[in-house]
Amino acid sequence: MSAPVLDAIELSRDLIRCPSVTPEDAGALDVLRTALESVGFVCHDLTFSADDTPDVRNLYARLGTSSPNFCFAGHTDVVPVGDEKAWTVDPFAAEIIDGVLFGRGSSDMKCAVAAFASAASQIASSSDFDGSISLLITGDEEGPAINGTKKVLDWMVEQGETIGICLVGEPTNPTRLGEMIKIGRRGSMSGWLTVNGAQGHTAYPHLADNPIPRLIQMVRHLTENELDQGNDHFQASTIAMTTIDVGNPATNIIPAQARATFNIRFNDSHTCSSLEKWLREGFDKVSENYELKLHCSGESFLTPPGLLSNLISEAVQDHMGMTPELSTTGGTSDARFIKNFCPVAEFGLVGQTMHKVDERVKVEDIETLTNIYTTVLQKYFAQSKQTV
């Protein structure tokens, strides 16, 4: 007797009904675990902790024990709803209106999780595939990402779990399903710059040390120098100033400190380490009396066009009749952790309404994405058999 096939639409709605705003799970992983176990997955409920961060639940589920292991990575946590009164529906009611499913997390990315779970159940039900299918699902993607995917991957290494390839279900398509596959991401580094001086009276500037002119020169180092012009797969790196502040409401006081914060989105021409060197070299030319705090939330990475992007592209062509663009645009994702373990690419639903009021996806798109994921799995395991 074949295993049951999971209904992607119903599972999507069940997940959306769980108000799993980071770091709360609100039952979302229990819903997913129950569904996956019903079709034969062995599930591991993983809760991780760290100082000054909330505990986070994660789930690793695997169907099969042999290689290769095709992994799907995603998250069930969602961002806050914002002004609930601005929504036309209850953000956690999972209502379907005129063929559109509304709800926080529908686009980003509970419906993609449900679509892959359904696709995996179809493979398990209809095919004697040789290999394994796994899901790595975190509740910490929208938060600090400390107790989520990164720690699950470390746990997998300890357990001897290996994955051959990984598809991340982030909403990669700007306006229409099938438009875009992400094969890499820019890195991200934030900086907090404090220039020190000595407070004094504006009538006696020679008795003070004004840090503001030096801060202006340092900011010019950020705004007037081009990091690069981009390359074949990446846009040019960018630096965005986010604050400039001296915290001084008085007009007759020279402040003791001046501060600026900035964020760098960088391509694979740079690393966080090389950028720190570039920053300090530029700042040191102005003054050494400053403090610089940096946080690298992820290095840039690229999975060159190959097996995984080809599989997704072929599946999109089969079901949509279009060729998706291979892109590295947008922000960071948990793919930045997975790329250290195996080739990774991202493909999911349309992201036009993610994080917005009335977040929503077309029911038809969920069904089509399920078919695309099913085809990707079929093609992957068929090719694996041929190469054995």
Rg of Cα set = 24 Å
Domains (count) = 2
* Fraction of residues in helix: 25-40%
The CATH C-level name of the largest domain is Alpha Beta
State the order of secondary-structure elements, H for helix, E for strand: HHEEEEEHEHEEEEEHEEEHEEHEHEEH
Q: Name the CATH superfamily assignment of the largest domain.
A: Zn peptidases
User: Which structural category do the helix and sheet elements fall into?
Assistant: alpha+beta
What overall form do the CA principal axes indicate?
elongated
Beta strand count: 19
Strand order of the largest sheet: 1-2-6-3-7-18
Strand residue content: 25-35%
- Major sheet summary line: 6 strands, mixed
Keywords, separated by commas or semicolons:
9 helices; 19 strands; six-stranded mixed β-sheet; 388 residues; Aminopeptidase; four-stranded antiparallel β-sheet; alpha+beta
